[in-house]
């Protein structure tokens, strides 16, 4: 996404001060990745939430986007992207596009982004939203994200924006050696943000902070 297209979409700076405060808060909460902060300082988050909630878009909280789904709080978007450790040489798989905000952030810091959303209306909306911002290195499709997207594997990073009872094995399989899988693991109400690093000998699991996400529904996640 270009700065010019982002600025046009942001309403000629109407929300710039709110984004600046959001970035300040992310820094105080420990986000250090300069590329992640830059992306989130430019992407108009208010365009990814229902119009009635636009004034709340830059608060550090999740917001409903319809179909019982949410847009993740800014801190969690930043934290997961930071843990994914991607750059312009990275190919990334995102599970749970939602309205496309996390997709847009990933597209700004990674080389290629392939995103899956299981709810068809949200998948269409996400694709439309990122295209309107000029994100052409990201693609959203409607599918069961727990199965992954083997056509473009292996991935340097996989980011899962929904909570799973365990790590879906297909996602580990589609991860490149040295790649990072960032996923919330736990029950329906309490999860831990986990990073899986794939090595030649297997996987290394790191447990990070507590979090709460909607359920990851699919063949290798929750049944419903």
Main attributes?
globular, Rossmann fold, 7 helices, 27% strand, disordered N terminus, 224 residues, two-stranded antiparallel ribbon, alpha/beta, 7-stranded mixed β-sheet
Give a description of the structure.
With 224 residues, this protein is α/β, with parallel strands linked by helices. The protein has a domain at 61-211: Rossmann fold (3-Layer(aba) Sandwich), CATH 3.40.50. 30% of the residues lie in helices and 27% in strands. The protein has seven helices and nine strands, in the order αααββαβαβαββαβββ. It has helices at residues 3-9, 16-28, 34-42, 74-84, 101-109, 120-132, 169-173, and strands at residues 63-66, 69-71, 91-95, 112-117, 138-142, 155-160, 175-186, 191-199, 202-211. A seven-stranded mixed β-sheet has the order 5-4-3-6-7-8-9. Helix 3 crosses helix 5. It is globular and about 50 Å long.
Number of strands: 9
The named CATH superfamily of the domain at 61-211? Vaccinia Virus protein VP39
Largest beta-sheet characterization: 7 strands, mixed
What is the fold-level CATH name, i.e. the topology of the domain at 61-211?
Rossmann fold
**Helical run tally:** 7
Distance between the first and last residues' Cα: 35 Å
Helicity range: 25-40%
- What is the CATH first-level class name of the domain at 61-211? Alpha Beta
Instruction: Name the shape in a single word.
Output: globular
Assign the CATH architecture of the domain at 61-211. 3-Layer(aba) Sandwich
Q: How confident is the prediction overall: mean pLDDT?
A: 94
Q: What is the radius of gyration computed over CA atoms, rounded to a whole number of angstroms?
A: 16 Å
Spatial order of the strands in the main sheet? Answer: 5-4-3-6-7-8-9
Q: Please mark out the parts with pLDDT under 50 across 5 or more consecutive residues, or reply none.
A: 1-8
Would you list the SSEs in sequence order as H and E? HHHEEHEHEHEEHEEE
Described by its quaternary structure, the protein is: single chain
């Amino acid at each position: 996404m270009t700065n010019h297209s982002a600025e046009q979409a942001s309403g000629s700076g109407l929300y710039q001060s709110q984004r600046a405060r959001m970035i300040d808060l992310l820094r105080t909460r420990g986000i250090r990745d300069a590329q992640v902060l830059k992306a989130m300082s430019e992407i108009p988050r208010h365009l990814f939430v229902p119009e009635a909630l636009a004034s709340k878009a830059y608060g550090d909280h999740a917001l409903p986007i319809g179909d019982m789904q949410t847009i993740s709080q800014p801190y969690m978007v930043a934290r997961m992207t930071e843990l994914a450790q991607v750059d312009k040489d990275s190919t990334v798989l995102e599970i749970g596009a939602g309205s496309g905000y996390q997709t847009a952030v990933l597209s700004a810091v990674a080389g290629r982004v392939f995103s899956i959303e299981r709810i068809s209306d949200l998948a269409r909306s996400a694709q439309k939203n990122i295209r309107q911002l000029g994100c052409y290195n990201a693609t959203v499709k409607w599918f069961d994200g727990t199965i992954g997207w083997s056509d473009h594997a292996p991935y340097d990073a996989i980011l899962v924006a929904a909570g799973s009872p365990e790590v879906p094995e297909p996602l580990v399989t589609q991860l490149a050696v040295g790649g990072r899988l960032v996923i919330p693991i736990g029950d329906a109400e309490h999860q831990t943000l986990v990073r899986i690093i794939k090595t030649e000998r297997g996987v290394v699991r790191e447990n990070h902070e507590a979090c709460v996400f909607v359920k990851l529904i699919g063949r290798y996640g929750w049944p419903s």
